[in-house]
Specification:
This protein is α+β, with helices and mostly antiparallel strands. The chain is about 25% helix and about 40% strand. A hairpin with a 3-residue loop joins strand 2 and strand 3. The N and C termini lie far apart (about 35 Å). It comes from Pedobacter suwonensis.
Length: about 130
């Protein structure tokens, strides 16, 4: 299993960060420019990654103010789990960690780990930008 993560500190209380992330409609704002054909509801999203694949994901688990997990809702090119973990820093700020776990063979790992790391980093930076 390939695990890629990115962590950021957001200047908002954990409940506010959780509320934003627990709604898939908000995730479009976190996506890079190579994501298009975005459709979403509160619980799921479908989109196309330019030159790669179409993905459909759904939130499979929510632990209030701690964790949100999304998994493919349709057949994906590989098994993948997208998880956000949140930690209340006790001073009105939140540490948000985005973890992408993907079951990649060696060839896919060489091709996909760079773009997946860029995606994780982009999403955490956008979260910080949007929520302050």
């Amino acid at each position: 299993m390939t695990v890629i993560d990115s962590t950021v500190e957001v200047n908002k209380p954990v409940a506010e960060v959780y509320t934003f992330l627990s709604n898939m409609n908000n995730h479009q704002q976190l996506m890079p420019e190579n994501i298009y054909n975005w459709e979403s509801t509160e619980d799921d999203a479908r989109f196309t990654i330019q030159n790669m694949a179409k993905l459909a994901i759904k939130i499979s688990n929510r632990i209030e103010n701690q964790e949100i997990t999304a998994i493919p809702s349709e057949k994906a090119p590989f098994d993948v789990e997208l998880k956000w973990t949140l930690a209340d820093n006790g001073n009105g700020t939140t540490t948000a960690k985005h973890i992408i776990s993907a079951d990649l063979n060696m060839m896919m790992k060489m091709l996909a780990s760079g773009p997946l790391q860029k995606l994780a980093d982009h999403q955490t930076e956008k979260l910080k930008e949007i929520l302050g």
